[in-house]
């Protein structure tokens, strides 16, 4: 039995999230269907990161096991089966005990706001034409790095044993009419990035002071966070693994 990691990207607009769900259209279900059709074997993959409904990914990973030899045009053939809004970018040979979820060292997300109406950004960002204090946004982002318990920013009905996350990067950048939040952590809770963004936007609009922002974090109460920002602005950008784990396989174009 061989184990493979696959690197994928997707536009999440038409999906009820990443993870396979009963009676729901999901990204992982489409990937498993394509793999199963090509390999003529029932494939049940494991994903590295579970994105919510409508959320996009520049890079996500899954792993699967099979005894079936991979076709020389494996990449081309899987992409021919997959819908247009999902792409299989690369496939890697990995050790049989490697797990795409638990081997990941960190994940990076971006959330994009755009301040002037732009039909080309409609599916890739959040139209937010309001005056904001960028310095206050940056201060709030820096405050986030001083905490480790993010219970406040986890949606209810989540099955996790701990709300502790290690934040490595948290900052805002302004690029013309785009305002982008960048965050990297060893793990994320359900709805966490959108909760952070929505709550920080209240700080940027002057509706929440920095002291109140800290109080919200320390309350460990999700009703103190604002999760109302839409999903299309959120992208999973990168999943980081230990050096040397991933050995790419080269296929015929």
Proportion in β-strands: 25-35%
The count of helical stretches stands at 5
Mean pLDDT across every amino acid position: 95
- CATH C-level category of the largest domain: Alpha Beta
From the alpha carbons, calculate the radius of gyration and give it in angstroms.
19 Å
The helix-strand sequence is EHEEHEEEHEEHHEE
- Tally of individual domains: 2
Overview of this protein structure:
This protein has 253 residues and is of the alpha+beta class. The protein has two domains: 2-103 and 239-248, Pseudouridine synthase I, catalytic domain, N-terminal subdomain (Alpha-Beta Plaits, 2-Layer Sandwich), CATH 3.30.70.580; 126-229, Pseudouridine synthase I, catalytic domain, C-terminal subdomain (Alpha-Beta Plaits, 2-Layer Sandwich). Helix content is 22%, strand content 27%. Strands 1, 2, 3, 4, 5, 6, 7, 8, 9 and 10 form a ten-stranded mixed β-sheet that branches. Helix 3 runs antiparallel to helix 4 (192-204). Its EC number is 5.4.99.12.
Short précis:
This protein is an alpha+beta fold.
Q: How is this fold's topology laid out?
A:
Blueprint: E1 2-10, H1 27-39, E2 46-47, E3 56-66, H2 74-81, E4 86-94, E5 106-114, E6 126-127, H3 134-144, E7 167-175, E8 178-185, H4 192-204, H5 210-219, E9 234-240, E10 247-248
Parallel strand pairs: 3-9, 5-6
Antiparallel strand pairs: 1-3, 1-4, 2-3, 4-10, 5-8, 5-9, 7-8
């Amino acid at each position: 039995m061989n184990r493979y990691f696959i690197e994928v990207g997707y536009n999440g607009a038409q999906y009820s999230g990443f993870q396979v769900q009963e009676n729901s259209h999901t990204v992982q279900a489409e990937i498993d269907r394509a793999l199963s059709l090509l390999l003529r074997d029932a494939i049940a993959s494991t994903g590295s990161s579970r994105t919510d409904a409508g959320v996009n990914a520049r890079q996500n990973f899954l792993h699967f096991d099979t005894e079936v030899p991979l076709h020389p045009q494996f990449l081309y053939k899987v992409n021919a089966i997959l819908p247009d809004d999902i792409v299989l970018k690369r496939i890697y040979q990995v050790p049989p005990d490697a797990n795409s979820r638990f081997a990941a060292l960190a994940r990076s997300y971006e959330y994009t706001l755009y301040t002037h109406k732009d039909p080309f950004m409609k599916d890739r960002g959040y139209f937010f034409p309001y005056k904001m204090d960028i310095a206050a946004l940056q201060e709030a982002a820096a405050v986030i790095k001083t905490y480790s318990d993010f219970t406040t920013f986890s949606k209810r009905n989540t099955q996790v044993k701990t709300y502790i996350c290690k934040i490595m990067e948290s900052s805002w950048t302004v690029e013309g009419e785009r305002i982008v939040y960048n965050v990297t952590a060893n793990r994320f809770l359900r709805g966490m990035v959108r909760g952070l963004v929505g709550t920080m936007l209240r700080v940027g609009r002057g509706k929440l002071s920095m002291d109140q922002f800290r109080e919200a974090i320390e309350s460990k109460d999700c009703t103190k966070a604002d999760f109302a920002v839409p999903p299309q602005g959120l992208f999973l950008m990168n999943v980081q693994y230990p050096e040397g784990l991933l050995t790419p396989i080269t296929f015929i174009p």
